[in-house]
Structures are given as C-alpha cells and as structure tokens.
Amino acid sequence: MTLAIVLYGTIFLLTMCGESESSSAGTMEFLEQIKQNYSKEIRPFHGGDALKVRCSMYVSTLGSVDTTNMDYSVTFYLRKTWQDPRLQFDPAAGVLIFQSEAARHIWIPAISFPDEKQGKLHDLIDENQIIQIWPNGTVVRTLRLTMTLICHMKPGKFPMDGHKCSLMFESLAYPINEVELEWEDNNMTMGKDMSVSKFQIDPNPITRPCASSSFHFDSFSCLEVVFKLHRSLTHFLLQVYLTSILVVLLSWISFWINPRSEPARVTLGMTSVLTLSTEISGVQQQVPDFNFATAIDVWLAMCMIFVFAVLVEFAIVSYGYTKLSKRQRRQHSSNHTKQDNGNIEFEMVDPTERDVEVGVAMDVEYQSSQSRESNTGVKFFSRVKRFFTISEPGDLDHICRVIFPIAFGSFCIVYWFSYIV
C-alpha cells in the first residue's frame, strides 16, 4: 500500500513537471514568434473599425490635497483590455502572464494624463506592470501608478468649500477614429477606509467620458474620474468660529460697565481687539494665501469691525460726558456769578392766566391719553422713540445693548445662509 502511494506521487510530480516544462516551452516559443512575426508598430484591426480599449481603475490611496498649489496626489491601478487577433494561440497553453519585458514586443495603446504634474510607475523591487494574454487574443495590461495632478479648485467658500478633482487620461497617438477608450461595467473601486487630511471623500466617484481634446486637428478619445471632496468643518468651527464669537460677546460687556470707569472699559476693548488680531494671524498661517477674500476672511473682518465698533462707541460716550461736564461747570460758574452780583429777578404771573394754562394743559393731556389708548401702534412707536431718545451720553450704552446683538445675529444668519445653502 505504501509502495503504491509512493509510485502515484512520483508519477504525479513527473506529470506536473512535464506540464510546467511544456508550458514554459510554449511561452518561450510564443515570445519567439512575437519577435519574428509581429509588428508592434501597427495597431490591431489596422484599416478597419476603431479599436475598443476597455478601462477600469482601483484607487488604493488618495494623498494630500494641496489647496495652495491646487493639486492632489493619488495612487491607483489602471487596467486596460483590448483585442489583438495576432496574439491568438493554442487554448491548451492557458493564460500567459508576462511582466514588463513583454510590453516591449507587442502593440500597446499609448495614453497620456493631461493634468499630470508628476508621476511614476512603481518599480521598488520589480516594475509594477503585468500583461495577460488569453488564447483568443485578449490582452490585459495592469499598471500601478502614483501621480500628482492639477485640481482646478474654487476656494472662495473656504473653509466650507467642496471640490471636484478629476483624473483624465486620453489616447496619445491614435485619434478617436482609430482607438476609442471606454469604461468597463464595474470600472471603479475605491480602497476601504480611505481618508484625506482635512477632507472627506465621496466613496462613489464619477466615471464618464470627457470632452475629447483637440490636438493637431484631430480628436482623441478621453476618459475621466471625478473625485468629490468636502472640507471637514469641525476644526474651524471649534478653533476659529466659536472663539471669535466669544470674543465679540466678551466685548459687549463694556455696555454694562459704568462709562465713568474708563480704565476698565478701555482695557476690555483693547483686550478684545488684540485677542481677535492674534486669532486672525494664527488663521492666516494655517490657510492658503489667495488673491481674493474667502468666507473665513469675511467672517474675521466683520468680527473685528464689531469689536472695534465697541471701542468707538465708548469713545463717543466718553466724549459726550466730557462735553456735558464742561457745560455743567460753565452753568455752575454762571449761577455763582449771578448770586454774587445780587441780580435776582422775579416774574409776576397773573393767577387767572396760570389757571387757564393749567386747564389747557389738562385738556391736552387728557386728549393725548385718549389717543394713546385708542391707538396701540402710536403707543408702540412712542415707546420706541423714547428708547432711542438720548438725553445723556450714557443712554447710548442702553441702545447698543440691543442694537449690537441684533446686528451681529443678522450678520450670522446672512453669512451662514450665503456660504452653506
């Protein structure tokens, strides 16, 4: 029994070695035939219909997205499949798999990447290029590439911006009537748990034919992958928007401080301005430099205007109290002068005239009260008028306690509605 097992095992190994040797011999013979009887300069079906090249892609990593230089990096596997009847062979040989050497001896559809800045074919140990040839002449070429590509961004809504970065590739040598690129059915696969710093990636990129570029009066077939990126807003909400709102609210405490306490109000106002200025400087170091105002620039500029307006309001109130003090001192000095000179004048008033004036005043007051009770709208506007009436400089603080929150709240609503919706 043991001897039979050994004999069967020996026969199986010899058979496998024979098949391997015959397969290797068939592969070598196939390569020799290609070198002798095959022209790699002529495309398949030359003179006939356009050759269909089916493409698919697997994106393994999406690297850094640089808003300043408007580019991004991506590593992907690109697979191209086409038919070449000249490469048909005996089906008994199975599928032939070659590395990069075979690509030098067969016709390959040349493609280019119009938006490429830098790119490379990985070759750390071996060149990452595989060619599979099927018995019916189907050729499959797989490449592993890393590229830095241009992304035409529109960062006007920064940091609430979203971008569509495209990866385009097109036929380089043959116009669209000679070689036509087309997507396969399951043409795009994204790596699992893919993430990019400061951006969120849509897991379903768009694959579509792109507009054929014109070059030397010919149109070339083109395919495109569109990656949809959305900037993560959490960092900016916590580090920029929340802190700037708190600084603006802090500056409003000045409206509840006695206007006579000038050191306290000046210190609070200057502290708010300097804090916001420091925050603006920190944000400018984190965000790219653009030649136009972005959403975050508008926000910080308006916050600075609100904080600076508090200081201006205090300057107006302080100036008003200074003028009022000077006027009171002049009046007080004038009264003392009159008393010292003994120039005291008395005015004689007829009692009947006083009674008539009192009666007329009571009639006017009664009619006014009746009118207020019958017209609530006039009553409301009279209260509003009384509220906005400034009898002394300190009344401006009472008005600003209402005006500033309403104005800042309105700005926030318009701002977020404009840049998010």
Given as residue ranges, the uncertain stretches (5+ residues, pLDDT < 50) are: 1-23, 343-362
Strand fraction equals 15-25%
Count of runs of 4 or more consecutive helical residues: 7
Assigned CATH class of the largest domain: Mainly Beta
Q: How much helix is in the residues?
A: 40-55%
Shape: rod-shaped
Structural class: alpha+beta
Quickly give the CATH architecture of the largest domain: Distorted Sandwich
Rg (CA only): 42 Å
How would you portray this structure in words?
This protein is of the alpha+beta class and 421 residues long. The protein folds into two domains: 39-231, Distorted Sandwich (Acetylcholine Binding Protein, Chain: A), CATH 2.70.170; 233-323 and 387-421, Neurotransmitter-gated ion-channel transmembrane domain (Methane Monooxygenase Hydroxylase, Chain G, domain 1, Up-down Bundle). The chain contains seven helices and 14 strands. The chain has helices spanning 2-37, 234-251, 262-286, 295-341, 351-374, 376-387, 395-420; strands at 51-66, 71-83, 96-98, 111-112, 116-121, 129-133, 138-150, 162-171, 179-190, 199-201, 206-209, 214-215, 218-219, 222-231. Strands 1, 2, 3, 5, 6, 7 and 9 form a seven-stranded mixed beta sheet that branches. Strands 4, 8, 10, 11 and 14 form a five-stranded antiparallel beta sheet that branches. Helix 2 (234-251) packs antiparallel against helix 3, helix 3 runs antiparallel to helix 4 (295-341) and helix 4 runs antiparallel to helix 7 (395-420). The longest helix has 47 residues, at 295-341. It starts with a helix and ends with a helix. Mean pLDDT is 80; it is low at 1-23 and 343-362.
